[in-house]
Amino acid sequence: MHVLIPALLLLGCAIASPITPAATSKSPFWFFGWGDPQMLVSNVPDGEQFRISHRGSTGFTPVSALRRSAQARATEFCEGKGRAMTPISEQTSSHPHILGNFPRIEIVFVCTEKPLTANAPPAEDSYKRLIRLKELLDAGAISQEEFDQEKREVLER
Asked: What's the pLDDT band for 29 if we cut at 50, 70, 90?
């Protein structure tokens, strides 16, 4: 019995919110204000913005796992409309992840027209590159200046 409770706590899953219009929904960061929003695009595309957020059920849930899950749900949502998911901003919780401040992520996105030309890089590839850069920044592998420079290069393509 003593082993069962810690095992259940460590095996907890993420808690996913429904995908909602950003204009009529609240950010999960409204109360605590923890985490800095990162704008992922310089020119916000036209269209209705949507919000998706995931929260780990323990302090041991990696933010990268929450990001992958939220991104997959947002992509599926837009593909169901015959469109492509274009992320606008992302916000993650800050450490320490204790006392109820479990890891959280929020992605605001727009469902845009799919590119017609084969030469244009899909927004998905740029988004994956930005996610990887953010993971490297969070892990301390690159500095904020390196992150900003790489982000600019990705957004200029």
From this structure: low
Cα separation values, 120 from 16, 19, 30, 92, 115, Å: 32, 28, 36, 29, 7
**Angle (CA) 111 114 118, round 5°:** 150
Residue-wise pLDDT tens digits, 50-72: 999 888 777 677 788 888 888 99
Tell how far CA 53 is from the center of its chain.
8
Q: Tell me: pLDDT of 124 over 90.
A: no
Domain boundaries, the chain: 13-120
Tokens standing for residue 141 = 């592998």
CA distances from 65 to 34, 61, 111 (A): 19, 7, 22
Give the ranges where the chain is alpha helix by DSSP (H).
4-10, 63-79, 123-139, 144-156
Estimate the share of the chain in helix, then strand, then coil, as percent rounded to the nearest 5: 35, 20, 45
